[in-house]
Design a protein that fits this description.
The chain contains five helices and ten strands, in the order H-E-E-E-E-H-H-E-E-H-E-E-E-E-H. The chain has 187 residues and is of the alpha+beta class. It has a domain of 55 residues.
Length: 187
């Protein structure tokens, strides 16, 4: 966090939150003495989300490269890499290069990327001009092309049309409507 020039007040807060914590356990009439504990921040904590942004900042920098024409979106631990070039093969080559950088970061931070979470989609409105069937191979791992993916609860398709997302929302609404009707029956 110091590296990112975070305000000293925030740094002090985080340090105090993580160190010198004590606990006393009381059961019926018995109370233990104060014991020091190591505090771990759960993933559900609001502080966890903030700290993770600082933690993976170097990963995000590796994904954001003007020369390679790449950018990213990030929400806590969901990182999406966008490559905007005209040729699919070139995009896949750049994606492999970015992935190598991400793997280097993961080794230095002892993080494992779940291969099941890797998704590949080529976006275009004029798909007849491009070979849309190009997959990418990332270090012994083949990522097959998908026609639809979900990014932060938004369904996206390769044609950049919203119909797939609308169908998804409508299906959820039908379920919620049935739940509401059931509740109304019993009130």
């Amino acid at each position: 966090m110091k590296k990112r020039r975070v305000f000293r007040l925030l740094l002090k807060f985080v340090k105090n939150f993580l160190r010198n914590q004590c606990i006393m356990i009381t059961i019926d009439d018995y109370t233990t003495m104060k014991c020091s504990v190591n505090v771990d921040i759960s993933q559900n904590s609001l502080l966890s989300s903030i700290l993770y942004l600082f933690y993976n900042m170097n990963l995000l920098k590796a994904c954001d490269n003007i020369k390679l024409r790449t950018s990213f979106t990030d929400f806590i631990n969901n990182v999406n890499i966008l490559i905007y070039k005209k040729f699919m093969k070139c995009n896949c080559r750049v994606l492999s290069e970015i992935y190598d950088r991400c793997k280097q970061w993961s080794k230095t931070h002892d993080i494992k990327f779940l291969k099941t979470k890797h998704e590949l989609i080529h976006f275009t409105r004029i798909f007849k001009w491009f070979n849309m069937n190009i997959d990418v191979k990332l270090i012994k791992h083949q990522i097959n092309l998908k026609s639809n993916i979900r990014v932060l609860r938004v369904q996206l398709n390769f044609k950049l049309k919203w119909a797939i997302h609308m169908h998804h929302v409508e299906a959820k609404l039908v379920i919620k409507q049935k739940i509401m009707q059931t509740i109304i029956k019993f009130t």
